[in-house]
Write a structure and sequence with these properties.
This protein is of the alpha+beta class and 648 residues long. It is built from ten helices and 28 strands. The strands form seven sheets. Strands 1, 5, 14, 20, 21, 23, 25 and 26 form an eight-stranded mixed beta sheet that branches. Strands 4, 6, 7, 13, 15, 18 and 19 form a seven-stranded mixed beta sheet that branches. The longest helix is centred in the N-terminal third of the chain and has 11 residues.
Length: 648
């Protein structure tokens, strides 16, 4: 394995303190359902390195806080089709900026943003320990160290550790393998003293950024801190956004999407396969009786092809060993992943969780994957953020560790001249090469029904949570995402949002302000969608004057109990205005109608926090429609408005 090349690239990440916050889809920052402004457990599922006030709670399905998994809401996006796209606008803010270093918009650092996701089929059994889930409490999954190494005892250890009611993204064996696999000792670790595991050697859970081996869920610290990583892992690459696009060929060729990765596989005396090995390289693996084994990443498994010939005859299919294979003898037909997009990152200002040059938050349009199996997938999205300086050569390796490190913790420097004035720099070598990340809660990628098979879909969602701009910081207030959308008459818009009933922003407040200013019941997120005649308006127009509903044709409702027809314009307007509380206006059209159902209060308190929504197309060209949320749009305090432009 050519570690020298990896070191040369990865050492570019000489980072300063910073944060990244994901706003669409809603980033958790390790939150679940806290009523407090701060998260309860900053190591619940991953190591974010972010401020403890960031993040958004998991969605509630109804108007009350969830108590069971079935009462949580996962956002539902339709997959891309075989010949059509589904576009999800990923939106975030990063504290220390990114992007261009040209003369007019100079940056104070180099940066890399890495966008990834993981998925599994959504038909997992409830008692499957490896099932992706958001959890019902804020506790981390437990972990017990290995005492005796047998297949049976390790299996029992996993079964005792993993709790069904706690969040899980990476599986237990991901961390156990990491904890007992020797770390890459060719890496630059500056003057940090990396500790050892309970078997007496320094493993992949110990890194320069994590020298004491703190655990966050079942995340592997070495994989988290370095990209591209050199061993198999469950993450699939979407895009790399960098201030150094000259490195794009490298990132794309080394991505696990396109390049196989290796692990050492060992066996017990009874020939049962171990899930872990100490050895991280071919030579030591084979010298100690292991098999240096090639693994592949994949989009999904094409189980209909049972042999190598039939599999390899299909485009982008390969008969190979999947990274999650239970046995090295179990090759399968894998649908291969495309190479990640790589391009120059947008410029954002340093020391400011702000916008790009065009006045919008940093974003990326993710073309959602197409799963030809036509199976729903449960997924998680993550974004990682590196910023680096030019304080030392980018190609340093382990030869520059310890006393030879060019950077030290809080160094003192002498000023030139006769003053002998000494200055101290604020420098933590554990953070020179620091990585920050945020992750979404779980979401569902739905297969397309036949009526939307060939249409391009734009997802229109809502970001933010209850509170004013100071109270929600470093989160954001409510807004539509995107809030400026251009579509064609043959394209679809999927209007959908989620929210929590426990965004109270109460004590403890950490280093920020508590409180949750806003309308309606305290702590609740509510949204709706009503037409206005211009972005300067703050009054929705009456149904008689509203042309949006006359020109909008509902194509598909995610909630299959909704049966609004294309000519029932009043029903459609009422459905969106009431956040799905009413499914029609007249009693003869449905059961949950305006005439029969108990009246919804004016602040939408009785409506659900989440709205699965509908797919709609607009039939009139060269027309602009404006819309807002009646509850959250509060002139001089908060604007929640948007526009849709329909073109030929």
């Amino acid at each position: 394995m050519n570690f020298s090349l990896l070191i040369g690239i990865l050492s570019l990440f000489s980072a300063v303190s910073s944060d990244i916050y994901l706003h669409n889809p809603r980033g958790s920052n390790n939150r679940l359902n806290e009523k407090s402004a701060t998260r309860t457990n900053n190591n619940r599922v991953f190591d974010s390195q972010n401020n403890q006030r960031g993040g958004y709670n998991v969605g509630d399905l109804g108007s009350s806080p969830f108590k069971t998994e079935s009462e949580q809401y996962q956002m539902k996006y339709y997959q891309s089709g075989a010949n059509s796209e589904s576009v999800l606008n990923i939106e975030w803010t990063d504290q220390h900026g990114c992007g261009s270093d040209d003369q007019d918009h100079s940056s104070k650092q180099n940066c890399v943003l890495i966008l990834q996701y993981m998925c599994q089929s959504n038909d997992q059994e409830d008692n499957n320990l490896d099932r992706i889930r958001d959890g019902l409490n804020t506790n981390s999954q437990p972990y017990t160290l290995m005492n005796q190494d047998t297949y049976e005892l390790n299996l029992q250890r996993k079964q005792n550790d993993v709790k069904i009611d706690r969040v899980l993204q990476e599986p237990w064996q991901n961390y156990d393998n990491c904890n007992y696999r020797e770390r890459n000792k060719g890496l630059f670790t500056a003057d940090q003293n990396l500790k050892n595991n309970n078997k007496g050697y320094s493993s992949a859970v110990f890194t320069r950024q994590n020298p004491n081996g703190a655990r966050s869920g079942y995340e592997c610290a070495e994989e988290r801190d370095y990209y591209p990583y050199w061993h198999p892992n469950p993450w699939k690459d979407i895009a790399v956004l960098t201030s150094e696009p000259s490195l794009c060929d490298y990132y794309q060729s080394e991505s696990f999407n396109r390049k196989s990765k290796f692990l050492c596989i060992e066996f017990y005396q009874d020939n049962k396969q171990k899930h872990w090995s100490k050895w991280n390289n071919k030579n030591e693996c084979e010298q100690n009786g292991g098999k240096w084994t090639e693994f592949f990443n994949y989009l999904e498994k094409a189980t209909q092809y049972k042999d190598e010939k039939s599999c390899n005859s299909k485009l982008n299919h390969k008969w190979a060993l999947a990274y999650d294979a239970k046995s090295i003898n179990d090759k399968e037909c894998l649908v291969l992943l495309p190479k990640p997009e790589c391009r120059k990152a947008e410029w954002t200002r340093s020391n400011h969780l702000g916008n790009t040059l065009d006045g919008k938050a940093p974003s990326y349009n993710w073309i959602l994957p197409h799963f030809s199996s036509n199976r729903a997938q449960k997924c998680v999205f993550r974004i990682r953020y590196n910023i680096s300086t030019d304080d030392y050569e980018p190609n340093l390796d382990s030869k520059s560790n310890g006393l030879k490190s060019p950077v030290k913790n809080n160094p003192q420097i002498n000023m030139a001249g006769g003053s002998n004035q000494v200055l101290r720099l604020a420098l933590n070598t554990a953070q020179y090469g620091r990585v920050f990340q945020d992750r979404s809660h779980s979401f569902i990628l739905l297969p397309r029904p036949s009526q939307i098979r060939d249409a391009k879909i734009y997802n229109l969602n809502v970001r933010g949570k209850r509170g004013n701009i100071v109270q929600v910081y470093p989160g954001v207030e409510y807004d539509f995402v995107p809030n400026d959308l251009t579509v064609k008459t043959n394209e679809l818009v999927h209007i959908q949002w989620t929210g929590s009933n426990t965004h109270n922003n109460a004590q403890p407040g950490g280093d920020g302000q508590t409180g949750a200013e806003g309308q309606g019941q305290d702590g609740t997120d509510r949204n709706n969608f009503v037409q206005i005649l211009s972005l300067n308006d703050n009054y929705p127009c009456p149904i008689e004057q509203a042309d949006l509903w006359k020109d909008a044709e509902p194509i598909l409702f995610v909630d299959e109990t909704v049966k609004i027809k294309s000519n029932e314009k009043e029903d459609l307007a009422l459905y969106l205005a009431s956040s799905g509380y009413y499914k029609c206006a007249k009693e003869e059209n449905c059961q949950e109608n305006f005439s029969k159902k108990s009246k919804l209060d004016e602040d939408l308190n009785g409506a659900s926090a989440s709205f699965p929504g509908l797919l709609v197309k607009f039939t009139r060209t060269n027309k602009i429609y404006y819309f807002m949320c009646s509850r959250n749009n509060n002139f001089s305090n908060r604007s929640q408005k948007g526009k849709i432009s329909v073109v030929d």
